[in-house]
# Entry
Amino acid sequence: MISVDEAQALLLAAAPRLGAQDVPLADAAGRVAAADIVALRTQPPFASSAMDGYAVRATDMPGPVRVVGESAAGRSFGAPIAPGEAVRIFTGAPVPEGADAVLIQEDAARDGDRLTATDTVRSGDNIRPLGLDFSAGDTLMTAGTILAPRHIALAGAGGHPALSVARRPRVAFLATGDELVPPGTPAGPDQIVASITPALAATVRAAGAETIDLGIAPDDRAEIARRCAAGIAEADILVTLGGASVGDHDLVKPALSDIGVEPDFWKVAVRPGKPLMFASRPLVLGLPGNPVSGAVCAVLFLVPLVKAMQGVPSPLPEVFEGVLGRDIAANGVRRDHMRAVRDGRTITPASRQDSSMLATLASSEVLLVRQPHEPAAKAGDPCVYIAL
# Structure
């Protein structure tokens, strides 16, 4: 067995970078920037008012001065103001040349076109200067940024109607096993529902991938080989579910060998999920068929691979620090990932950690990470965890 860290390093080293494509700005959320996004314009493109009030010269205050016009958003006064003059101004409107402050209307006393200040006015008050947010040529986001709605707003303000993003990886899923039936299909007395495929598809779509469902292959070596070959031809990553252990009915490894695919590693010191297989040429990830094991291994291995292929600079799951909510026993030889709930910084693992229990996984918020041979710990001791 190799360690989790070694397995992750091998996956990321094998991850090819995908090409780029331009997408409309409104479709770029959740995608990964393929290049630095540089401002095409300056924001704001003029000195603007931060408040409703009057554009004035600070040296003229407290006045009186004469109001000579108005500046509104999208409709400027259009001329400089002279000493002794003021312009009625509204939030977002251009500040006329000659003015160096905005007297807020709450501090203004006006009688006709005669204006005086009831409080101190200083140069620069309530004015957003040219380029306060950014200037043309500034880097707004770097390549590898996962674009959230806030990034879309910034790119739009920077003058971009479309963005260059990494192509979505295509991930094909093939479940294996005579015992499996699709969700909603009547199950025989010896069968169970193949619930993990839609869950993993949702997981990688959230990480930016497109998915292909190759269905459920029976325990037939030739049929598994045929479907694996079809998935490899159609997708960037083939993910097999189940059949990767050493039993008589675990046929994925020999079926892949039949089509010329040999694993870079097979078995990882991870719990849950030891029977994990990876081939780099072509990209094939064999996940355990146990649903919880498959879900945990997707967080640790599949999602980082999908992110790395899109150029995300830190694709591994972020590790946070917390404190234990209850006592736990010493760990064994594999790195463990205990399903747990979080209350602030307090992490409390579920009392039952059987890897077949989807209800425990669904009620969990984090994975408590325990290193190999880590000693027993008590409530209140420091711990580390990965968010789900």
